Amino acid sequence: MELGEIEAFLTLAEELHFGRTATRLHVSQSRVSQLIRSLERRAGGPLFERTSRRVALTALGERLREDAAPAYDGLHDALARARATSRTMGGELRVGYLPSLGGAPLTDVADAFRRAHPGCSVILRQVTMTELTRAWSGEVDIQATLLPVDEPGLTVGPAIGTYERLLAVADDHPLAAAGRARLEDLADYHLPAMPPGIPSALHDSYWPARTPSGRPIIRITVDGTYREALHLIARGRIVLPTDSGTARFRRYPGVTWLPIIDMPAARAVLTWRTAAENARVHAFAGLAARMIQQ
């Protein structure tokens, strides 16, 4: 059923005159007749009694008007509210993202949001895993992060990406020849100890304390930046479980990225404080969901 058919029907039911209906709708009388005939075919019977002198609703037409008018009015009200929100939404939306989640699709959503809501500025801010708790406490309005998320008071919104789990190893590492790795392999090598402050559920999903068989995974302290950790990986000192999102931004000479075949893919989502949700947050999350589903 087309909206134009309902609009023509409800207008004719009010005017009971094809000429006045056509004038109100800015179409020809023949177009009104065409829309009414199409709707009557859908309804299974005549909606109007037509003579050369008068137009009147049939019993079927009366019933359809009673049922359709509230829904049509509700749709118009919803569209009016949406237009008003689009015109008046202003202020600032702060969107945090993990380094591995930079770029598309998040930047595509931000650009589309700016076009849809020119009065609202979108500020993208990189947030490391150790800064997530502080970001969720109010430093950003929306945070793009990786599952799992089990902090209280947060809403987990739409998914924005899926990333393969990888193991960063030296080009000449024994695992490199196989072209893949398993979680059980981690017990045979050293992993870097992660800095404090990473949410525990997220930390344990990337860097478990034990392998599936229960063997302990050894961690060693690594000072310095992520780039320095990659240097140690290239030298064969450590290996590092990560994901394809990180790999695309952290390419380094002498480092190979192997799929961890028994580790589930990492899912990226939008999150925000439930108590702080507002029209800007709702609009951005909804836009992200629609764009990424396409």
UniProtKB/TrEMBL annotation:
Report keywords, A-Z: DNA-binding, Transcription, Transcription regulation
- GO cellular component entries: protein-DNA complex
Q: Which domain of life is it from?
A: Bacteria
Listed GO MF terms: DNA binding; DNA-binding transcription factor activity
Quote the Gene3D superfamilies the UniProt record gives. Periplasmic binding protein-like II (3.40.190.10), Winged helix-like DNA-binding domain superfamily/Winged helix DNA-binding domain (1.10.10.10)
Please state every residue range assigned to the domain named HTH lysR-type: 1-58
Spell out the InterPro entries in the cross-references: LysR_HTH_N, LysR_subst-bd, WH-like_DNA-bd_sf, WH_DNA-bd_sf
Q: Which family does it belong to?
A: Belongs to the LysR transcriptional regulatory family.
Xref: PANTHER family:
HCA OPERON TRANSCRIPTIONAL ACTIVATOR HCAR, TRANSCRIPTIONAL DUAL REGULATOR HCAR-RELATED
**What is the name listed in the Swiss-Prot or TrEMBL entry for this protein?**
DNA-binding transcriptional LysR family regulator
